[in-house]
Structures are given as structure tokens and as C-alpha cells.
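Archive entry. Fields below.
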Amino acid sequence: MAPVMQKKKNPVQKDDIKKDFAEAINLALTSYKNQIKNNRKLRLIDIFAAMLVFIGIFQTAFVGIIQDNYPFNAFLAGFIICVGQFVLLMCLRLQLTHPFEGISKSKAFGEFVIASLILHFTCLHFIN
Amino acid sequence: MLGLRYIQLLLVLVCSILAAAKSAVGSRTLVVFDDRVDDLSTYSEFFNLLKDHEFDVTTLELSDKSTKINLFERDTRLYDHLILFPVKGKHYSKQLAAKKLIRFNEDGGNVLALTVPQVSSDPIHLYLNQLGIYPSPRTQSLHDLFQDSTDLLFSVEQLENEIVYSNSNEKQQDSFNFGESVSAALLDNREQIVPILQASKTSFTSGNKSREASWTDGSQGYVVAGFQNLKNARSTWIGSVQFLSNKHFKQNQDLINELISWTLQEKAVIKATEVNHRHSGDNQTSYDELPYKVTDNVTYTVSLTQWDGQKWVPYVSDDVQFELRQIDPYYRITMIPQGPSPQDPTSELYSTGSFKLPNRHGMFTFVTDYKRSGLSYVHEADVKAIRHLANDEYPRSYEISNAWVYLASIATVIISFIAFVLFFISTPASLSEGVSTEKKTN
Amino acid sequence: MSEIVEKIVVPDNAVTANEESKVTSGKYVSFIQSSLKTLIFIAIIVASISSRLFAVVRFESIIHEFDPWFNYRATQYLVNNSFKDFLNWFDERTWYPLGRVTGGTLYPGLMTTSAFIWHALRKIGLPVDIRNICVLFAPAFSAITAYVTYKLTCELKDQKAGLLAAAFIGIVPGYISRSVAGSYDNEAIAITLLMATFMFWIKGLKQGSILNSSFAALCYFYMVSAWGGYVFITNLIPFHVFCLILMGRYTAKIYVAYNTWFVIGTIASMQIPFVGFLPIKSNDHMAALGVFGLLQLVALGDFVKTKISEKKFKLIMWVSVILIMVIGVAGLFALTYLGLIAPWTGRFYSLWDTNYARIHIPIIASVSEHQPITWPAFFLDTHFLIWLFPAAVFLMFMDLKNEHVFIIVYSVLCSYFAGVMVRLMLTLTPVICISGAVALSKLFDIYLDFSPIFSTKTTGTKKSSFMTVLTRGLVSASFVYYLYLFVHHCTWVTQSAYSSPSVVLPSQNRDGSMAIIDDYREAYYWLRMNTDYDAKIASWWDYGYQIGGMADRTTLVDNNTWNNTHIAIVGKAMASPEEVSYELLKEHDVDYVLIIFGGVLGFGGDDINKFLWMIRIAEGIWPEEVKERDFFVNQGEFRVDSQASETMKKSLMYKMSYNGFADLFPNGQGQDRVRQQVITADDVENLDYFDEVFSSENWLVRIYKLKDLDVEGRDLSDVAEFERAKNTKRSSNKKPQIELRV
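PREDICTED_STRUCTURE:
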């Protein structure tokens, strides 16, 4: 999953727990690396997701720095499109790694595209 | 010398014009009197003056009980002005009940009422009481500690209203004679009352019985008071009849003249001719074409005109104010006279100049509320809606520099999405690879 | 009437027939099944529409009640102007002098839909009056609701249950109450959308399909645009997901379904001007956001879980969960404290504590829809489904799939809230229908199965099979009888209780024939014809929409109770002595005051009975000037007869209500038929500042005009006294008690 989420867990105090965490993270990372090593599509998804995370954080930082969220709708649109696209990507990723019954991979991709288009349209409308 | 002559000539001319002044509302005048109290021949000078003012005078004598007074026929008013000399008797109360007088006044008729201490004219008293003027009752008359003579004199300084009587050079008299028996009145606080002549500080009213408390003391009493109702009809009360008599006419002429002029609406009559407000700017679109929205720039104008006794002329003053109200005033702007109005040269155009509507939507009233004691009231109100900004009147995102960041990020996301989709489709071979690796890891 | 009843009976019999047809499975079974299904659907649609037409048949094609009048007016505006105008509509004819930014403070879904239908019909050459579309809007959508409910129930059990549920929702009074013809309200469309959202949600959840969840989000968006009750969905779906996570049922499907729904639904809902940034700021929406975040963590945890040992994972999980909860709660409090997110709204509190509203916000409590529900009302609205409902919830526990958890969560939450607020009964009704249908179809699955008759040899002795058949027959027969009763009940309730437009009141003549009391429209028409177009009418807010819609005059306050202070102004005017009221009303440029007085007719919902609310609301703003205590007599009673308190008798509302009332009666003893008290002419003081200009036929509506300011500048009470005095009155020799000039 996304590296951001893992960062959140770092500031845990106790040593043994810390150790456990470190181990867990290591394990997860290695299996993650294994997962993407051979699958270019997954790698593609992850690159895109990382980019989205970066854009999202950048916008939040921008608001934090200028201390003003004046065109609030614009900020929301910009931020939510990142979050939304990221989440949709994750959905697609889950469906690609463990396909659900009744939904083939190509169908999942098609649905993903449709949902993304809806998302893009609303965000564009929101920022007008 | 020649200059002096000219001035004299001019004075004569002015006097003749003054004498020939006409009322702005009409000339039909009814004079009601009672033979038993007064003989009209003692007031011939006064009636001559009325004739000079081109009033069409009808007199009605009331001692005969069969006489009927018709102020109205059906619902049409028969007279424009009513002059009431003191009359006594119950018959009079019935014929000229206070309610009738109120109705006459409310319908726009002007009333000049006279009372004397000797006669209790109930309807007149009741009528005046309704206006907030309380003349002293029968038996009480005004005395002055510092005046020994039987006739009471009032100096020009005791006059209170500049508009009714302005003290200019042409007027020679410095005091007015009110004769022997004078009533004084208490006035209440109503804004419509126009106090005209105040009793002196050393005066008081007293009756025959010494135990009776005085009605007025010192300057709280008035001997002449005017009243203007909300429909601009005027009433004036004078606390003495001898004031008008031939005996004192010469001394009182100026004041009588001014009182008649004011009461019977020959002067101090103003009105608004044109009220307008529109968007500021070159094309000056009106509200109907383009309703106001918040923070629009708007100009408000009003034209005021004045009756000078002959014709309507521009009314010029520097204290005409405009108000923008929504229950409470939001703005109060003193308007600037712009000279005679282009549409109507007989009136003066006042303008607020361009001003910005408040940043608040709702129903606002555009008001000119010009009420000065002695002048006709001008109240012009117009309720208009000021709407909020429409959804497409806010600045667009691309007009706000901050939003460029977000716009750029959205653009990036969408472009990279398209790129992603293209890449995704163009790498079909690895799909099976991916599945196989999944199977392995599982 | 009986014809309609029979039509309604059809679906139930048809369902049984359907099941029987299944039993005798033959060659053309599938064909017969599908054709029967179509037939049943047509029957259901006909039944649900026709039962809603009682209102039109019994009265006429008219918009009902209060809120629909506003919706109707807004729709007219939308039809006559462009959509952009509608969106930016500034309504200067309500809430004088504030005006209302109507376009930004309404849910446009309903009006947009009907305007769309109107335009579409015109395109195909059917120019229908917009009023008829509005009147028939709710019945039409109830048919769609029936179909959507069918689909939803299919997801839960099978088509049999689906058909039953569709039939139930078609005629259940709890839903009809808000969707009869003419009741052109947001709820009419909202319930359809509610069901559609849930249907897509469950589909999306079951399959993990992004597409279905997107549809759920779009339906949710439509719902947001149509009704304020969308908050219910906003909380129910996250709650469902939360329950599933707690039950350890997290799967990737949940992740897919919820995230898709949440992201698209949230950004889309913010497109509605009235909602705006609420989904980010209001606490009502925080649950959804929280679950969204939680789901990300759970997904991560799930990923990690597959990689490391279970024991370690548990430890890690607990530590993380506690940590995150602490941070989350602290963050929530901090944000609320800093004022970044909206404080908990009053309506929200009143959901939890029934007494909260009564104590703190009279305006909320004064709305009858916000009162707690009573037990009889449950039965009245749902009949025998109400006791099938718990059984159904129990059956849901028996096979506890994700979608069943949803129904359980839905029913538990909704039952509680419906107990607090009457209007939420509307959201409870669909779930009652669905679960009732599921329970009944389960029952029928077993008891309507008469196959033992045909296969006696295989199932054992003849006697036992006979007994089975008998018991099955008995149970089935009794339930079919219940169904019949249900239909009967629904018809009866619908036509007697829910078809009244409340604009016209039904009553009975002495000979028992039906008479219609049409005072409201009489009065509104009078206003329309006899008053200036710009006249401002003050009335209690209940009648604001109707005055706007029927009389087309400017009002001070209306049913969109957005400004408490403004409502309190009217309350204060009604509760104050007339000279105070006069000044207050003059300040607001009021020309007429309209009140509802039921004393002659015996109509209980009149303004005197609402008077206490006006006083309370006014007291909330001006505690010094209006005191509730003063309106009661010493014994704590609220009286209107000669023993009424002095403040009560002086109040404008009292004077206007009873002005001239006693004169109606021959002996001068007015009998108030609502409060059963006797009012004599002496009890009612003179009304000096107002002129009665109109009283409707049964005195239900009374309209008073504010007198003009006195031309002489006197107080109007003095004027009235002067007018009453005799002509021959002598002037007084007493010194007047006046404020002297200074």
C-alpha cells in the first residue's frame, strides 16, 4: 500500500512494539517489492498513485504556507481529485491483484475509467 | 437718488406681487362668524386683504339656528379654506363638529381659527386639542406683569418660525398689538406643530376667580400656533380676534399677511416632482432594465419645486437628505443641488452622486424624507430589491492567482490520467505476467 | 372505490399464484413466470398510483398543505425562467425586508425533475399544465419506488420477496402519507432515490463493482439535490461499513464500494449550492469521513496482515487503533473548538434528547413533524407489517450476509429516530416493507409449498401429510387473510386520513353528506383580488408558503424557517399589546395581518392554539418584553374567556381572534368550539389600530388591515376614542396631561 500510511505509524514509543513495527514494515515492503517487480501495470499504478499523493501534499502545504484557503472550492476540487483518483487507483489495484468474481480485469478497468471521468467532470465543474 | 427711487419702485413692485399672491391649492374660502360676538365690519381691512390675495370669500352667519354649514357635498370638498371666528351656542357645535373640521383638514382644507377668552367655542377647542393645541378655557385670559396698558403687545423677537415670518428690512413693525383679551395655549410635543408667536416670560393667564390655577405661565404659552398635517394641509390658531380688527390692522398687517400666506398655502409649499434612481455610469440603466445587485454603483436624484405665490420655481436648499433604509438607515447622504432639472426647469435637481450599495441583499427603501417645520413635508419612498451575486458573478478560479496552483494540479491529474490509461492499455503483455506473479506470491 | 380495492388485492393473489406456478413447474414455466411478473408489476403500479389519486377524486387536482406550495411556486418560476435564473433566484416577495436567496437555499432536485418532465412532454407534443405535473408527480414516482424496492429486495432474498416488497411499498400508508397526488414535496422523489441509492450500494458491495458504486454515488448526488434527509444516507452507509469492519468482515469489495461511493458522492454533493462545504465542515458528515480514513488504515492493515504472523499483527493493530482513536477524537474536538467545523446543530441534538428542542429551540419543537411519534401511528402507517418487522429482523440474523447487516443497521437506527421525530417515519417505512416482505416470503416458501399433496408416497404416511397440508393451508390462509386486511386497511387509511389537502377541509353536513370548507382559498383569493400587488402580509410562518403561492403577496416569514429572529418579530407582534405591535409591524411596512381562527368552526389547528409557540419564540429573543408566564392565569391555565390573564386579553392575537366574536351569537355569549369556553363582548377590548377587512365564511381566516398613520399625528387609540365620542362633547376646562414643548 502507500508509503504515506506507513509513515503515520512511526512515532510509537515503546521499544518492542517499535521492533514489531519495523519488522512488519520490512515484511510488507519486501512483499510489496516482490509484487511490483514483475508487474508493470501495478508499477504504473503505483507511480501514478505516488504522484497523486505528492500533488495532494503539495496543495495542502501551499494552503498551510500562504495561510489562506480563499478559493476554498478550488482547493477542495484540487485536493479531492487527488484523493479520489488515488482511491480509485487503489480500487483498481485491488481488483487487479485479487479479481472479484463476476468482474473481469478489463471490466474493472472500464469501470475505473468511467468512475474517474465522473470524478474529473465534477471536479472541473466545482472549480469552474 | 436715482438708485433710491429704483429701490422704491422695486419695493412697490414686490409689494404688488406679494399682494397678488395666490394659494397653491385654491381660493374658495368660507368665513364663519357669529353676529352676536363680532361685527364683520370691524374687520373690513382684513377682508380687503383677503380680496387682494384673490380669495373667493363666502361668509356665513351662524346666530340663526336654521343656518346649515356644508363643508362637503357628497364627498367633494366645497371650500379650500376655512376661517373661523368665535361662535357660541350648541347649534354651532352640531353644525361644525370637531369631527367635521378634522375631516375637512384631513381632506386638504386649511383652517384659520380664532378664539377669544369670552366665548367658549367648543368645536374649535376640541379640534385644536386634537392637533395638540390647548387654548386656555373661557374666563382665562393672558396678562403681562410688565405691560400696564390694556392692549397686549408682542415684539418681533417673540416670533419663532423663520419660514412663516422672516424678519426682513421691508417690514417696519417691531411689535404687534393683540388687543385686550387674548387666550394663550399650551402646545404638546408633536412635530407637526409650528409654534409661531410665544407669550412673553412675564405673562400668565388668569381668570375671574382668583383660586383658579393659571393655564400657562411665562413662555410656555403661545398666542399664535400653526399646524401642518401629514397631507400638508395647514391650520393656524390665533388667540385673539382684535388682532385682525381695523383698529390694529395697520400695526399687525405684516404678520397677518404672512399668516394668511402660510396658512392658506401661498408660500412654504414645496413638492417633489421627479424621483429617480438608476445605475451610475454612462448608459444609466434603470432598475427595470437591470435590477440592482450588491455593491452596485447607483445614483439617486430628486427634483424639488416651490410655489412662490404665482408659479412653481426651483427650491434650493443644502439640507435635503437621501436615505437608504432596511428598517434602519444604511446610508444617509446629503444631496447636492444641481441647478434646475433638465426635464422640468421649474424644479431643482438634487443628486446623491454615485454611491455604492451595501454588500447586503434584501429589500431596501430609497427615501427622501424632507420635513422642516413650516415647510410642506416631502416624503418619497421607493422599495427595491437588491439581489445577491449570481453564481457566475463571483471571480472565476482562473482570475484568482491562488487558484492557479489547484487548477494546475487538476490539469496534471487529468493529463497524467490520460497518459496512464494509454500506457495501461499499451502494456497488455505484462498482464498475464502479473497474474502469474500473484499466484506465486499467494 | 371497491374497484380500486380489488385492483390492490390483485398483486397479493398474483404473488401466490406466481409461487404456485413455480411449484407446478412445466415446460413454459419461465415464460409464464416472466409474463406473470410483468402482469404483477402492472398491477402494482396501477394500485400504487390509483390509491394515491383518492385526493384528486375526493377533492380536486390541487397542491396540498404548505411546503408543496413553495415547491410549486419554485417550479413555476423554473418553468417560466431559465435554469440559471432559477439557480440565482433572489425572492424579494418573502421574508420582507430581508428577501431570500431562494436559489441557494433550496434543494432543486424536485423542481428540476418536474421541469424536465414538462419540457420533455412538450417536446413530444403533450403540452401539459405544470400544475398537473406537480400534482401527479408523487404518484408517478411511487411507481418507480415500487420497482426500485423490488430490485433492492431481490438483492436481499429473491424475486418473490421482491414482488411482495414492491406491493407493500406501493400501498403502505406510511409512504402514501407523503406521496398522495398533490403532495408535491421533496420526500416524494427522495424516497425513490433513497431506495435507488441503497439498491446500488448493496449491488456495489456485493460485487465490489466500481460502476455500481458510482451509480450509488450519482443517486446519492440526486438525493442530496432533492432532500435534506440525505444526511441519513451519509450516516447509514458509513455505519454499515463500520459494523462490517467490527464484525471482521472486511474485504476488498467493501473498500472498493465504499471509497468509490464516498469520493464521488462527496464531491458531487458539494455542487449543490445549499449544501456547499457542509460535507467538509458539518459534524453530520464527519462519520463518513472518519470511516473513509478508517477504511484506508484497515486496507493497509489487511495488506500487512497477510504478510506477518497473527499474534504480532494483533498487538500492532491494537496499539495503532488506540493511537488513531485518540488522535481522531482530539482532532475533532480541536476543530469544533476552533470553530473550523460547524457546531452540533440543534436538530441533531433533538434527535438524541427528545426534550432538548423543547427547552432550547422552540422553533424546532413547534413544528409538528418534529414531535415524537405515537404507537398508534406506527400501526396506522404500516398495519400488520409492524409486527412482521421484528420477526424479519430476526430472520436477517439467521443468514447474516453483508446486505442483511445493512438492513439490520437500517432498521435499528431508523426505528430509534422515527421514535423521536414523526417525519422520519417516512424513512422507516421502506425498511419495514422490505423486511416484512422478506419475512412473509420466507413463511410462504415453507407454508405455501403444497407439494406434499402431489408426492404423498415419498413423504410418508397419508395422515401426517394431510396434517402438514392442513397446517400449511391454515397458516397460509391466515396470512392471505392478513394481506387482505392490510389492503383493506391501507385503502381506508389512505382515503380517510392522508388524502386531505389541508387547504380544503372536509366536513359533514347535518344530513351526513360531505361538505367542503374552503375558507383558506376564499381568503387567499380575496387577498389576491383586493389588495395591492406589493402589499405585505404578516401571518404566522405556517401560512407563508400558501400566501406566497395562492395569494401571490409578499410575506414576512414562511415555512422556510431560516431566520429565527424574523419569526420572533411576528411572534412578538402577535403577543404584544396592539400599540406595540402596530409600531413593530409599521416598521416592517406590513399592510395586512392574517390569522387563522377556528373558534367558530371547531378547527383545532388555529393560531390561538399555536399562540404559546409564538410567545416562546418571541420570549427567546425579547425575554424582557414577552413573558410566557403572563399569558397564563394564576392556576397555570391557558384561558381565553373572561378569566383570561390581562396580558392575554391585551395581546393582538387575542383581540384579532375574538373581535366581534360574541356578536355572532344571539345572546352575546360566544362559544369557542375549540377551547370550549364562553367569550362575551365585554371580554374583548376595542381594536383601535387595525381594521377588520375580511373574515372568511366560517371565520377560519381573518384578515386585518393596519390603519394608516393618523394625519394629525395622534395615537390611533386617541383617534378611536375621539371618533367614539359624541359630537356635542364640550371641551374640557382641565389642564391637559401632556408633555409640554421644550
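CURATOR_NOTE: Chain C touches chain B at residues 84, 87-88, 90, 92, 96-99, 101, 104, 273, 534, 587-589, 709-714, 722-723, 727-733, 735-736, 738-742 (CB under 8 Å).
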